Amino acid sequence: MGDPVASLSISEDFATYVSPRFGSRDSTSRPSMVIVIGASDEIRLVTERGAYTGRCLLVSPNVSRSIEVNNATGLYSIQLDPASRLSQYLRRHVPGEKPVVDLSKKAEGFALETSGAALGKPPGDPDIAAASQRVLDALFGDAVAFPATECRVQTVAGCLKARVPVRTDPRSLARLCGISESRLVHLFASVTGVSIREYLLWVKARKAVSMFASGKTLTEVAHATSFSDQAHLSRTFKRYFGLTPSFLSNPRLVRISNSATGCRAEPDCGRHCGHSSFRIADPAKLC
């Protein structure tokens, strides 16, 4: 029998990786919040500030950690888009000094059962994204009442997702948002925890994943997503997903589904920002 097939599902505000059998992995660091769930057993995350063991662990951005498991167990991992509302909620409510938060007790019952059931779904099943949303709702129900992401940040994120430019152009983005370039750069980083440039790399990685699903080669993907070469593409994937492009592009090892629209416009941005004259109907047409 061959190796179990894993799944990677790209949604609007998060990416879900499901592996029926997951072994220990070397140290990696992600620029966004990640929820890691051991489907059938506890997992152990080792960081520079100590080790954390549990069934459901929330990892803060840019925390270098390795995963250790006693026996190969199913892994369910949800990586949040840095510009999403839930990411902003967690950045506000998770103390910065905590690299890892144990959510195991909160996850008991519905969250663990839902993530465990997802392991039984066919690889690449689009229902995995819906399962992840239910898990997030169960873990962070209070986030529903959290204010929407600052509209100018959402406009920049939507613009980059819609166009996937070769490089960022903070000056043009600032004009689009009606503020100075320095103000926008500071605002985006303070709200999301990442720079505009680093967020664009996340967007490019998402696009690359969707291209893998359509059968494109590594060379075609690197060129279409404006990575300088395959080595740059590989480094980005290791940082954002902890996986190599060669692994993700192999349908015998992983199946990919993509339910993201690529851009979510804010119908009445001025209402959220307090600037009645600032209304962006479709960032894709302006950036």
Automatic annotation (TrEMBL):
Manganese among keywords: no
Swiss-Prot/TrEMBL keywords: DNA-binding, Transcription, Transcription regulation
PROSITE patterns listed in its UniProt record: HTH_ARAC_FAMILY_2 (PS01124)
Residues covered by the HTH araC/xylS-type domain: 154-251
GO MF: DNA-binding transcription factor activity; sequence-specific DNA binding
SMART domains linked: HTH_ARAC
InterPro entries: AraC_XylS_family_regulators (IPR050204), Homeodomain-like_sf (IPR009057), HTH_AraC (IPR018060)
One Pfam family per UniProt: HTH_18
Protein name, UniProt field: AraC family transcriptional regulator
Record organism: Burkholderia multivorans (strain ATCC 17616 / 249)
